[in-house]
Amino acid sequence: DRLPPGFYEINDGGASPGGVTLCKVEISCDDLMIPEGGMIEGILKEIKDFLGLREQFKAMGFAHKRGYLFFGDPGCGKSSMSNLIAREFFKLGGIVLLGSSPALIRNAMQDLRKIDESIPVLVLLEDIDAMIESRAESDLLNVLDGAYSTSNTIFLATTNHPEQLGERIHNRPSRFDRVVE
Question: What is the pTM for the complete model shown?
Answer without folding.
Answer: 0.91
